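Sorry to interrupt, but I need a hand with the structure work. Leave the record below and I will have a look:
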Amino acid sequence: MTVILNVEPKNYSAAARAILEDLGEVREGPLTRAALLDALSDVDVLIVRLAHQIDAEVLDAAPRLRAIVSATTGLDHIDLQAAEARGVAVLSLRGETEFLRSIPATAEHTWALLLALVRHIPQAFASVLAGEWDRDRFKGHDLAGKRLGILGLGRIGEKIARYGRVFGMQVAAYDPYRADWPDGVARRATMADLLADSEVLSVHVPLNASTVRLLGADELRQLPRGALLVNTARGQVLDEAALLDALESGHLGGAALDVLWNERSGAAESPLAAYARAHDNLLITPHIGGATYESMAATEIFMARKLRRFLQGGS
């Protein structure tokens, strides 16, 4: 019998679980790293989210493993080379463009972060909870009329472009891999052109060898003074030391991040988290962009069906 281990089952879709139970014996966590290593000896399928780094050590502990299932597009939490070397298939949402266009969670969270940043919502709420009522202290900024730059015009970036237009912003984007182009979005020829004209920059590029530290000190200096940056892609596309310098110097007016470089180990102790504790112009959320009940249920059901096709011999 096929043994399926779901290592992060909290709030897992009941419909997706029912599909898995038709495929074999389903075991569930949550598991610590040590417990995960101990549990893998007879596991055929491993279902993960983002809490664990699935590396060579994990794969070596799973001699029967046939597939890793991750309802994500980013796969930096899985050692793809080690999986390939061991003949383990990695099933994910990468490349599932048509389906992913129906998933709004990350785009909505991106916009929520931007609104929270420009209107000081977390700080204003904390002030009210503390018994205060200081309206003038939390005066914010309009988005209407601002220049929104979108770095990466894929399915999330395109949603952000639509949101920006609805809010009355001037929208531009840079994406060298996109042939067609949506109406109402100015096309920038280079990333430098986009950065120089973006009062708000929203980052939506995939993580790969060419995008690690895509935004470093030189690139951040190209943004107008006082610009805002929102990153819900992956932490590694942004040089965090350069971001901290840009915030401390005042060159950047603020930033909102849903992702960090070290988010699976010690994110709360990072220099950015320390800065955020003492300053109001940096917001950090714990990689919850895709974490809505509706979107996660839809992706879990989609991936369970994809696993079924794989186990039945499909591609």
User: Anything to note?
Assistant: Residues 293-311 form the longest helix (19 residues). The mean pLDDT is 95. Residues 105-284 form a domain with the Rossmann fold fold (CATH 3.40.50.720).
